[in-house]
Amino acid sequence: MKFGMLRMTAGLATAAVTALVPSSCGAGKPVITPKAVTHSELVGRWDGEPRCGSPIFRLRDDYTFSSKDFPVQWDGPEPDSQVTRRSSAGEWHGVNKDPGLPPYLVLSFSGHADIQILHFFLEHGELRIDGTVYADGGDPYAYRCHYKRGSADPEA
User: Fold this and answer.
1) Residue 72 CA to chain centroid, in angstroms?
2) pLDDT (tens digit, 0 to 9) for every residue of the chain, 156 residues total?
3) Would you list the DSSP string of 7-76?
4) Which residues, at least 6 apart from 115, have a Cβ–Cβ distance to it below 8 Å?
5) Dihedrals φ, ψ of 10, to 5°?
6) 97 contact partners, CB below 8 Å, separation of at least 6
7) Among 10, 11, 52, 79, which is least packed, fewest CB within 10 Å?
């Protein structure tokens, strides 16, 4: 039952983000997603863009991860808006075979009841991860954060 709920949540999140990704990457630009992502492409240190606070997460070969300043929530574009960040650890897995959906990454933080679903895309032929956080309620204001693999060694 837990897996079924996770799959349904992932499917709904993917559908919602897929509809919003084109507007967050620029009007009229098609988003190119990979057909599959291999384990070896994922393991390593993933660096977030400076414009989103330079967060880092490290995916290890044993399906554990750690994160530093990872944005998980945003309360909108007001002048005093707050980004909730998480420096934590947990388990990860990549999903390639969810019918009708492009591949995505699931981060399960230890000690927290929520998960983060991150979508893959290709930019100039290189794998990237979209970690954009959308404000709760109202208009879909985005706090954009994309990641690229900075090193194949998670501890680098």
Assistant:
1) 9
2) 444 444 444 444 444 444 344 444 445 567 899 999 999 999 999 999 999 999 999 999 999 999 999 999 998 888 888 999 999 999 999 999 999 899 999 999 999 988 999 999 999 999 999 999 999 776 788 999 999 999 999 999
3) HHHHHHHHHHHHHHHHHHS-TTPPPB--S---HHHHSEEEEE-GGGT--EEEE-TTSEEEEESEEEEE--
4) 6, 9, 106, 107, 108, 109
5) -65, -40
6) none
7) 79
- d(C-alpha 70, C-alpha 143), whole Å: 12
* d(C-alpha 35, C-alpha 100), whole Å: 11
Find, among 58, 55, 59, the residue nearest to 68 by Cα.
Answer: 55
For tokens 């208009």, name the residue.
139
Paired tokens of 15: 């559908």
For β-strands 64-68 and 70-74, DSSP reports them as unpaired
- Looking at residue 114, the DSSP 8-state letter turns out to be -
Q: From residue 113, how far is each of 108, 109, 116, 129, 153 by CA, in Å?
A: 8, 8, 10, 22, 28
